[in-house]
Amino acid sequence: MNPDRRPEGAPTIKSVQHDAAWRARFYKGVAQPYPPGLGEADQGDWFTPFNRPGATPPYDLRGWHARTPREGARPASKSRS
Q: How far, in Å, CA of 59 to CA of 17, rounded?
């Protein structure tokens, strides 16, 4: 047994093409300019937590569970002096 190797004949991903709907889900709640560290180019055709809802408010920073566009957004913090 070689758990560090893919089995012979196992399917492989040759290329990845994300459509506009995929990009819309991936960038939901992220303001432009999109941060390069979000890594769209690094996302293949496997599971990614960036294009589906996660935590509910108040931790829903991207507004996935919001009923209105800004409902899920985090309020600006007030600095204390």
A: 31
Q: Tell me the pLDDT tens digit for each residue of 20-62.
A: 998 898 898 888 998 888 888 788 887 888 888 888 988 888 8
Token pair in block for residue 58: 């108040």
Summarised one tens digit per residue, pLDDT across range 67-80 is 765 544 555 445 55
The pTM for the full model equals: 0.60
Quote the CA–CA distance of 23 and 10 in Å, as a whole number.
Answer: 28
Q: Which residues have a Cβ under 8 Å from the Cβ of 73 and sit 6 or more positions away?
A: 29, 61, 63, 66
C-alpha 27/C-alpha 71 separation (Å) is 17
